[in-house]
Amino acid sequence: xLSFIKTLLQASAWPIQTxxxxxxxxxxxxxxGIPLAVFLARRLARTGTxxxxxxxxxxxxxAVSELYKQGFLYFVAGQGRYNWWYFPFxxxxxxxxxxLPLFKHTPHCRTEKCICTFMQxxxxxxxxxxxxxxxxxxxxxxxxxxxxxxxxFMLIFIGLYCAMTGLxxxxxxxxxSMLPLFLACICIATFINVASHPYGNADMFYISxxxxxxxxxxxxxxxxxxxAAGNLLYLAAMVLxxxxxxxxxxxxxxx
Length: 255
Description:
By secondary structure, the protein is mostly helical. It has helices at residues 2-11, 24-47, 51-77, 110-132, 142-164, 172-195, 218-225, 227-252.
């Protein structure tokens, strides 16, 4: 079975010249994918389809595609060695969609609302920012590169869908109520970064305590003020970005 999986993965290793950010490849893909994500979110929100079911399917698609990515990175790109930098617990890969069916879908379910507010604000933020600075999505393999773009198009869909269906919160208080969930993710990311350090360079949420932030702009900031202070500033910027998304979506979709 393992050899069959490796054969399939190797068969999908279609090499390409690594695309450049803001190249025609990047711009044309975004010009097609982002409007499609917006259209599908609007269309499905209007149909009245069970919203948690839609999000659960999104979670399954993300999970299956992530299994492909992890297998490809281990067996093909890594030649049997695991690169902890690709461990799937970045802001863009928190699998919140998968647990929604565990909670009864009611307008007053606080847990569901908290999860959907998280996805509404931070999935949208992560999707937009990754596509705006896509160097981490570009690989010398076609399917691996497409995986990164399609993943973030789906994040934009999820964020907008949560807003359009009213599953996500609208008020500043809803955003504040969601922050403990964000803090819990930060704690998990920090644990992974520290626990895996002897084995690789995990950088979940880009807040590794061992080296400066790898994100554009924040890398230079961390070099100037130090890694710990740079990480705190980066987290504050993430919260601010999520809050801006929250307020913007509340104005665009007030009901």
